[in-house]
Amino acid sequence: MEEARHFIGGEWCAASGGETIAVLDPSDGQPFTVLARGTAADIDAAVHAARRAFDGAWGAASAAERGRVLYRLSMLVAARQEELAQLEARDTGKPLKQARGDAAALARYFEFYAGAADKLHGETLPYQSGYTVLTIREPHGVTGHIVPWNYPMQIFGRSVGAALATGNACVVKPAEDACLSVLRVAELAAEAGLPVGALNIVTGYGHEAGAALARHPGIDHISFTGSPETGKLVTQMAAENHVPVTLELGGKSPQIVFADADLDAALPVLVSAIVQNAGQTCSAGSRVLIERAIYEPLLDRLGNAFQALRVGPSHADLDCGPLINAKQQQRVWDFLSDAQHDGIAMAAHGEVIPEAPESGFYQAPTLLRDVPAGHRLACDEVFGPVLAAMSFSDEDEALALANGTQYGLVAGIWTRDGARQMRLARRVRSGQVFINNYGAGGGVELPFGGVRHSGHGREKGFEALYGFTVLKTIAIRHG
Ligand code: NAD
């Protein structure tokens, strides 16, 4: 595959420093292309290109025109679903069927925001007589987007889709571990008629290109998805310029299962919520809290399901692919070795197929039982296919466990009792709650984001449009 370059001001360009970064295929750990290693000078060029677009053709485009460009982009992405899926699967290691779903979701994000572009409006406010007061929503200007490696297409789509729909010009710094699909989509955006400079992509390391973007004085808003530690750094850098930041930082999301739940319906969802993307999902259902009366029977069933899971290269299209890189693999191993050291029992695990290259970054999905509340495995994000099972005796204990981490992104509640569904949904601390389902299949339309260490601000759905705009109040005194 040919060398990947930055996309700045409608042109492909090498890094100003001339350096590159090797891109590894997580399925075999081997390099297959290189990326431009972006510098502060590259970020500066991209921010200036975005500003010119904002002050020029893109800033002048009507909301309906912006919607039409996004709709054409959505059609182009849909037409190239297979090509994008192949690229994403190789780059991230995820099974092909999942990468196809991600490409379909990307098309849907652009479709949704295409339709939303001319539906956002302000209000008129009752005020003293002799005045008319109205509010209008304006784009921030140039928005910065720092994208992680776990769902490059989807996270790019949700954030850039909403930012472009509202008239911002974007500078994107995708993750050094996986950014090929995002570069391809930038090319499709140009084909869809997006004016030069309205979308710029600078690849490179976080501490170089990412940090240069977060602290650039020409950026008016930052959207970051990734780890809490980096989120804090990005916030500090953005604060130097008083730039607002939307943060999505992952979680330790609980699924609470009561004895009266439909366990046949719950079982496959409990498994897929942690196995999808090899557990490298911010909203992974990484804790299962089970009412004591059904703890052993449900654990048995979960154990059987885990034992049937098969892990292999992305093109083998199994239940699970490899982890993204050796660092992530080591992180998961460290968690599992802590579990072993502290006597936490492994209830079951899946299997890495023998044909999987030894140099790939594989990890068998693992079910841990009786994880003590307060243990690292019960509180911290592993970001791998590791499910922690815990038991509870009543609603209050379930809630204490569910709310017993610093995170608050997503929660699942499984029960047939309607009053209990609502009691818990109101008391659980999280940005989304799913009752008798989990994740609602991605839900492009559903506002998404966390509380506490999971971050703040909302992406996805119509709600995201508010985050990518600023409200201006205009008071007219006419007597
Ligand atoms: P990270 O937060 O460091 O990286 C995410 C993005 O931020 C990447 O594009 C990266 O280049 C950029 N970045 C890194 N350092 C930066 C800096 N100083 N300034 C600006 N941008 C910077 O995540 P990681 O190191 O790739 O993964 C570590 C852990 O983070 C994972 O194990 C997981 O727990 C968590 N994570 C969460 C998500 C999520 O979706 N919430 C995604 C990826 C990783």
UniProtKB/TrEMBL annotation:
Organism: Paraburkholderia ribeironis
Name of the protein described by the UniProt record: Aldehyde dehydrogenase PuuC
InterPro entries membership: Ald_DH/histidinol_DH (IPR016161), Ald_DH_C (IPR016163), Ald_DH_CS_CYS (IPR016160), Ald_DH_CS_GLU (IPR029510), Ald_DH_N (IPR016162), Aldehyde_DH_dom (IPR015590)
UniProt KW keywords: Oxidoreductase
Primary gene name: puuC
Class in the EC hierarchy, top level: oxidoreductase
GO MF entries: aldehyde dehydrogenase [NAD(P)+] activity
Family the entry assigns: Belongs to the aldehyde dehydrogenase family.
EC numbers for this chain: 1.2.1.5
Residue stretches making up the Aldehyde dehydrogenase domain: 12-474
Domain of life: Bacteria
Regions crossing the membrane: none
Catalytic machinery residues: 248
One Pfam family matching this protein: Aldedh
Keyword Oxidoreductase listed: yes
Keyword Oxidoreductase attached: yes
